[in-house]
């Protein structure tokens, strides 16, 4: 990976290729704000059994994107991530905002360029 003093981050709400959703790239920043929304058509019964994986990537033009970190929300999460998930299920249609620390757990290290 090349050394930079900044990142060009973007978020993917699915660490695999199951979803084509991703945010726009926020160029040359260490403190990005995305303020973007994704919606999925899922019943509440099915949603309770799902896991939301959000990964943060450093965009590199023409090269593999570098994984920065990620977070998983769902029934198999623990601590604040599990609490956040239950709050989302309990408050259908409302925004429930929490801050989470990114982890390296279970995520790929690179992503092919789009």
TrEMBL record:
GO CC terms, sorted: presynapse
Record key words, sorted: Metal-binding
UniProt-listed GO biological process terms: exocytosis; regulation of calcium ion-dependent exocytosis; spontaneous neurotransmitter secretion
Molecular-function GO terms, alphabetical: metal ion binding
Pfam family, one: C2
Tree of life domain: Eukaryota
SUPFAM superfamilies: C2 domain (Calcium/lipid-binding domain, CaLB)
Domain named C2: residues: 1-100
Listed name of the protein: C2 domain-containing protein
Natural source organism: Oryzias sinensis (Chinese medaka)
